[in-house]
Amino acid sequence: MLPYPKAIASKLPNVGTTIFTVMSRLATECNAINLSQGFPDFDCAPELRALFCKYINAGYNQYPPMAGIMSLREAIAEKMSSLYGATYDPEHEVTVTPGATYAIYTAVSAFVNPGDEVILFEPAYDSYAPAVEVNGGKCVYVQLKYPDYSVDWEAVKRAITPKTRMMILNSPTNPTATVFSGEDFRMLASLLRDTDVIVASDEVYEHLVYDGHKHQSVASIPGLAERSFVVNSFGKTYAVTGWKMGYALAPKNLMLEFRKVHQFNAFVSNSPVQYAFADFMKNKDAYLSLPAFYQRKRDLFLECLKGSRFKPLPSRGTFFQNLAYDAISDEKDYDLAIRLTREKGVASIPVSVFYREPPAHKVLRFCFAKSDETLAKGAEILRKL
Ligand code: PMP
Ligand code: GLN
Asked: Do 378 and 346 form a contact (C-beta atoms < 8 A)?
């Protein structure tokens, strides 16, 4: 049969399969220790699983309200108030979504018109640029400065033009494992003061901050909160990445446009999961205990790596540890990541995939949201390289 149509004018001609799919598939094929894709290899809280089952069995299996069930929206608003002193009206300003990626995509497609510019920091999480480009927008990149991946605010200032429609932020940052400071956010607020730029702030790692660093939400920054979407994911916080649940918060006028797109795309998010989270969110310790839990895992991984020729870069947030490998190999990071998976049995993520052009520095990203045993086994192999 002849293919139809004969030629496809791809809207994303340069996009292949995401690195997370590529590396996790290869890790499975090679039976390798998978420190590549960011997901916990341990199970979520049994109470959370029990709540999900409870609501399925109780018949909460039909469409919930479009923006999410009210008790969950109230729980989210209450959390934003208690953690960041931010006020969001659950009726108009909180929307439950099928994941954070979806929420970012929805915010972009609700506001970015063809030809609009969207500022991204590079390295950038891999879903951002395609979301902009498929909607006809143009990505404008500001480089984070290696090796501390700090922001050059003068460069941000130069990147802002009358065409700038949006800026996508991500702190704690995937893949750099850095955390923006209060000063960073104040700089941003002052740069955006006289503009109409909308901010999409991906805060999925809000609870994964270490060494006394504090997560700052744009929700608590005057000058940013009014123009921002705060996006979050239950997947990271509750170790249920496969449930694909998240949420977006924004002032009413912005959220109104967001919901116009959402209601004709996913329309709603999974019903019984929402009821489960509405109950489970009452247990604040489940997220307040996360910094200590993951910091211990990061430290265990680093301890097991002692003596290795890999050079750890700071990991102040997220569940990623970057390792520079200049002392080990001249290979491209992608080639090395593939070879280590095939030959040594440890999978990682090459950081160059988060750039348009491969950077000069050589870094692999390792996920430490894994059991202690997996981390120790993986580090033992890496230590010998
Ligand atoms: N944003 C960032 C920065 C991420 O690292 C991830 C996944 N790890 C997501 C969004 C995806 O969140 P979700 O699975 O809820 O779409
Ligand atoms: N965000 C996760 C990571 O960085 C993966 C999510 C995905 O596979 N899309 O590894």
From this structure: yes
Closest listed residue to residue 320, CA positions, set 41, 38, 19, 18: 38
Q: Nearest residue CA, atom 9 of ligand 2?
A: 20
User: pLDDT value at position 3?
Assistant: 76
- Is any atom of ligand 1 closer than 6 Å to the C-beta of 101? yes
Asked whether 38 lines ligand 2 (CB < 6 A), one says yes
Q: Which amino acid is at 155?
A: A
Find out whether the beta carbon of 232 lies less than 6 Å from any atom of ligand 1: no
CA angle 84-85-88, nearest 5°?
A: 95
Low-confidence ranges of the chain (pLDDT < 50): none
CA distances to 94, 149, 193 from 273, rounded to whole Å, are 17, 36, 39
Ligand 1 centre to CA of 233 (Å) is: 7
Ligand 1 in contact with 235 (CB < 6 A)?
yes
Q: Quickly list DSSP for 30-83.
A: TT-EE-SSS--SS---HHHHHHHHHHHHTT--S---TT--HHHHHHHHHHHHHH
Q: Which of 233, 241, 351 to mutate to test the pocket of ligand 2 (most atoms within 8 A of CB)?
A: 241
pLDDT value for 378: 98
Q: How far apart are CA 111 and CA 165, in angstroms?
A: 8
Question: Of 17, 18, 19, 20, which is best to mutate to test ligand 2, by the most ligand atoms within 8 angstroms of its C-beta?
Answer: 20
Give the pLDDT confidence score for residue 281 in this predicted structure.
97
* Residue 81 φ/ψ, nearest 5 degrees: -70, -45
The pLDDT score that the predictor gives to residue 2 is 74
What pLDDT was estimated at residue 1? 72
Please tell me the distance from the alpha carbon of residue 355 to that of residue 373, in angstroms, as a whole number: 32
Phi, psi at 235, each rounded to 5°: -60, -45
Q: Does the beta carbon of 170 sit less than 6 angstroms from any atom of ligand 1?
A: yes
What is the maximum span of the chain, computed from C-alpha positions, in angstroms?
Answer: 62
